[in-house]
Amino acid sequence: MSDYGSLASRVRRKSLLDKVRSAEDCIEFFKPGMDLGWSGFTPAGYPKAVPIALADYVEKNNLQGKMKFNLFIGASVGAETENRWAELDMIDRRWPYQTGKNIAKGINEGRIRMGDKHLSLFAQDLGYGFYTPKIDIAIIEVSAVNADGSLVPTTSCGVIGEILMIADKIILEVNTGQPSFEGMHDCLIPRNPPHREPLLICKADDRIGSSAFPCDPDKIIAVVESKYRDKGRAFAEMDDTSEAIAGHIMQFFADEVKAGRLPENLLPLQSGVGSIANAVVGGLAKGPFSNLNVFTEVLQDTMLDLFDSGKLRFASSCSLSLSETPGFPRFFDNWDKYADKIVLRPLSISNAPEPIRRLGCIAMNTPVEFDIYAHANSTLVGGTRMINGIGGSGDFLRNAYLSIMHTPSVRPSKTDPTGITCVVPKAPHIDHTEHDLDVLVTEQGLADLRGLAPKDRAQKLINVCAHPDYRPILQDYFDRACKETLSKGVGHEPQLFDRCFKMQQNLAVNGTMKVKNWDIEVNLCE
Amino acid sequence: MSDYGSLASRVRRKSLLDKVRSAEDCIEFFKPGMDLGWSGFTPAGYPKAVPIALADYVEKNNLQGKMKFNLFIGASVGAETENRWAELDMIDRRWPYQTGKNIAKGINEGRIRMGDKHLSLFAQDLGYGFYTPKIDIAIIEVSAVNADGSLVPTTSCGVIGEILMIADKIILEVNTGQPSFEGMHDCLIPRNPPHREPLLICKADDRIGSSAFPCDPDKIIAVVESKYRDKGRAFAEMDDTSEAIAGHIMQFFADEVKAGRLPENLLPLQSGVGSIANAVVGGLAKGPFSNLNVFTEVLQDTMLDLFDSGKLRFASSCSLSLSETPGFPRFFDNWDKYADKIVLRPLSISNAPEPIRRLGCIAMNTPVEFDIYAHANSTLVGGTRMINGIGGSGDFLRNAYLSIMHTPSVRPSKTDPTGITCVVPKAPHIDHTEHDLDVLVTEQGLADLRGLAPKDRAQKLINVCAHPDYRPILQDYFDRACKETLSKGVGHEPQLFDRCFKMQQNLAVNGTMKVKNWDIEVNLCE
Questions:
Q1: Integer angstrom CA distances of residue B320 from A374, B11, B473
Q2: First to last CA, chain B
Q3: What is the pLDDT of residues B122-141, one digit of tens each?
Q4: A114 and A91 in one domain?
Q5: What pLDDT score was predicted for residue A521?
Q6: How far apart are CA B515 and CA B184, in angstroms?
Q7: A235 domain residue, yes or no
Q8: Which residues of B are marked as active site?
Q9: How many CB atoms within 10 Å of residue B521?
Q10: Which of B188, B218, B430, B491 could form a disulfide with B486 if both were Cys (CB 3.0 to 4.6 A apart)?
């Protein structure tokens, strides 16, 4: 392992060196029921040594279910921490986004009480004391501590500022296993209303904060050296479906530029995670647009490709969420090429409506499904089972210049390769409403919904986005719904409430959403 | 009628006096299918003379259905204009909010294609050319035209700026039937991204624009004198239910001040329209809080009472939407008392996330209904029938410091005085999601949902907000939904999709939402 500097060189407030202890020696600070705040965002910049030591302690002493904590973190963190904690039944409340099979299991079986909020609102509400009046212990991964006690983050800023606002005690994990990220951050602890300041970002690379978060050193109870790396996600594979979706979006951008509604270098891009997002970034790397800017919440490996293509001018994000390998080694080996083109900001800036709307971001995210009127489900499969959370999708989609969602038109069920349609009569759970979305895309095509009334949207989505297997089924439903409601004068947005979820029920019983017959003979009323 | 100054004294760009003509003489400018943009917002500041002349012309010449236009207006306008136009089948597309029985009929029978968008997004998207590349004719009511051609609005600013950005031709209605509102406005035409400027409002009374909207005089094709008054709404009556809701909210505010989460003069208030909003304003007029500020989109008569109480320091709004009588006469008779404590701003400022979030507004709005997980329906009765539109409720609720919705717990059906519950298992249409709302209130009580996971929210809403007649019914549904989904590991937010709308269906068939039995024996799948 390379030498990235000693602990002493990273801890510049020398009195704190008296507080250095091992992760195991921190266990004594933790009592069941405590409210904990961690640094970290979409497995980047989260504490590892202390959470792992606590998990080891619980496992070794068979304390499963007896050491439960409430976890407030900017977003998901590495599986070796929160997911392992869930496996060991160490989590009661968890806000506001998570990743991992065990934690999802705990949430959907009712053991873990997860709350799901737009990330920008989570950040401010945490600082306001809306979730808990105080954080008992904060665990913050840092690159360094300055002589004035201020904290230099690592690969994300998350909600460090808000945690510091309400934390009683603080444990620092100083990560000497990787370079210091000093200089890459734009740190700001917002003041609460009525004293909140404008966020004067007018370009993706404008900075409004400082290189570190102010912190009261008296609150720091321990300094732990850590050499763990972020367990970043591997690449999502691209496939023909993703490539087709990316192609539609590239064509749309070209058309918008031609129509004079987008500048030639587009507008700052926000792109979610996953194979479609990767295909879009890949399309941009090969495409005709240059001098691009990114204003987003997560930077993944593909963004390095976009930098290498010479098309990307600057990227603003909440986290640098590269893969453990090959992403981070590639980044560290080419530090000078990337570092001054990236700024990492706290969630309260990266996801704030103010800069997103002012800059006029182009937001692109993948839902579970959307319905014919353009309501989208981003969080609950089947309408009840939590996957990860809404994350920042609503922050960007609500405030973007163009709000785009993209998904394959179908997914396979257990028995039918096109058994699940992602275009449904009515979304069983709604995270983004018809009032928020401009453009919906599947590999079948791109539907520009701007300016369309609900029934015109429905017809366009059936024609353009639905898979051919489902077009006649959806058309039949839509025609019946129109017929039944318009004649009664209640048909602004026609639905049939006795069968709008028949596709979902058909899937449960017959393994496919291909409803054969929309007729129904049911008296639900007794 | 008082003398409020001659047309010549209001039209200070003298070359425009050559363009003075009667409303009837403007009819020749209009061709079927044109895109029209009007000033106006929640019946205030809208053009009257020309729209009424056009309606008279259509009626007299039996041109119903042969002179249809697309109408883009900040929000609803007076019934004598848009509702009469709907009656005469003169409207094809209508964005983004409307009021009136005939226009609602046209929308819900499928003749009028209404689009419904968050008002702040409507404003910017109109300016971007997303709905139409150009407005064929703008009709703007003004107090005056300055020598430089700039336009001084009357009782609202609406989307005048965005209309001027894309208008080909402009007709001005100079209203000499009331005082000039010059000096009350904060006019700004926003630049499009990537050149958009910060909106540097840090207090409700900060101003960032000028007293008039710049306008190219060459586009003005006619100047029409008008003496019509706004047909503002009458008072909504207060009742015991509204008073009880207001009482819960006053107590909540007092508790939040005590807990240190609100300053003693609260934070800038946004309050919707209707009897509950009036009761809340009435409660504030009698209550313990002083030096209040209002940052909202509509000011109604009750706001004059709040000024008179001495409790209200300043009010920022998009419109001054007083009643034709007694509201406006009272305002005009006491001009000096109110005028310098009010600023009227364009929708692109009044409803922008940037100032709403920075100031930390307290948003209060009335939905049609909400469900046990805190999703709210604001627009479609029964899930399909449009009432008015989402208006600015989402702009404020998404960005507020505290997001509050209030409704009676029940409404009467035709056969049962408590036949309709406003707390349902699943909202049949969703405009505001669980991710957006902090506090829900009925006359039964106030549920503070901050920090609660979905199942905890559901139990609290059933216990606190539901009407006693519906508590056991909702509890039974919730218990069954939990039982069925948690055992399968899919129960983050339990629902039963074969019966989640049984209350609505029961209402249609039996005239009440009091479901007797949640059992169901249906095979929906064939």
A1: 34, 23, 43
A2: 72
A3: 999 999 999 999 999 999 99
A4: yes
A5: 53
A6: 53
A7: no
A8: 297
A9: 6
A10: B491
Contact A194 B263 (CB under 8 A): yes
Q: A353 and A243 in contact (C-beta within 8 Å)?
A: no
Amino acid present at A452: L
Query: With contacts defined as CB-CB under 8 Å, which chain B residues touch A455?
Result: 110, 113
Burial of A370 (0-12, 13-18, 19+ CB in 10 A): buried
Peptide bond between residue A408 and the one before it cis (omega within 30 degrees of 0) = no
Q: Does residue B520 lie in a domain region?
A: no
pLDDT tens column, A187-225: 999 999 999 999 999 999 999 999 999 999 999 999 999
Q: Which of B226, B259, B289 is the last residue of a domain?
A: B226
B415 chain-A contacts, CB cut-off 8 A: none
pLDDT mean over B3-24: 96
Is there a domain that residue A125 lies in?
yes
Nearest CA in chain B to A199: B198
Query: Distance from CA of residue A165 to its chain's centroid?
Result: 23
Cα of A176 to nearest chain B Cα, Å: 35
- Catalytic amino acids of A? 297
Q: Which residues of A touch B131 (CB under 8 A)?
A: 450-451
| B385 and B324 in a common domain | yes
**Separation in Å, CA of B361 to nearest CA in chain A:** 9
Q: Are B27 and B55 in contact (CB under 8 A)?
A: no
Is residue A483 located within the same domain as residue A409?
Answer: no
User: Residue ranges of chain A with pLDDT lower than 70?
Assistant: 1-2, 235-236, 521-526
Please check whether residues B387 and B506 belong to one and the same domain. Answer: no
Name the domain boundary from A423, A449, A471: A471
* Residue pointed to by tokens 């998404």: B398
Distances (CA, A) of B134 to A259, B169, B399: 13, 10, 31
Cis peptide before A268 (omega within 30 of 0): no
Q: Are residues B47 and B192 in the same domain?
A: yes
Query: What domain range is B311 assigned to?
Result: 240-471
- A433 contact residues in B (CB cutoff 8 A): 430-431, 433
Using an 8 Å Cβ cutoff, are B107 and B114 in contact?
yes
Of A384, A430, A450, the CB nearest to B492: A384
Number of folded domains in chain A?
3
The shortest CB-CB distance from A380 to any of B453, B455, B492 is to B492
Q: For residues A344 and A387, is the Cβ–Cβ distance under 8 A?
A: no
The pLDDT-based confidence of B1 (bands split at 50, 70, 90) is low
- Yes or no: say if B49 and B182 are a contact pair by the CB < 8 Å rule: no
The residue whose two tokens read 């008039």 is: B212
Report CB contact under 8 Å: B495, A451: no
In whole angstroms, what is the distance from residue A58 CA to residue B260 CA? 37
> B259 and B151 in one domain?
no
A380 is a domain residue: yes
Interface test with A, best of B368, B492, B526 (most A CBs within 10 A): B492
Which of B457, B502, B504, B525 is the best substitution to test chain A (most A C-beta atoms within 10 A)?
B525
Helices (H), A261-310: 275-286, 301-308
Decide if pLDDT at B522 tops 80.
no
* Signed CA dihedral, A458, A459, A460, A461: sign only: positive
Residues in B closer than 8 angstroms to A369, CB to CB, are none
The reply to whether A417 and A466 lie within a common domain is yes
Residues A201 and A310 in one domain: no
pLDDT digits (tens, 9 = 90+) for B137-152: 999 999 999 999 999 9
**CATH number of A339's domain:** 3.40.1080.10
Give DSSP secondary structure letters for B106-131: HHHTTSSEE----HHHHHHHHHTTSS
Write out pLDDT tens, residues B496-508. 999 999 999 999 9
Distance from CA of A452 to the nearest CA of B (A): 6
Question: Is B506 close to A524, i.e. CB distance below 8 A?
Answer: yes
Cβ–Cβ gap A524/B375 under 8 Å:
no
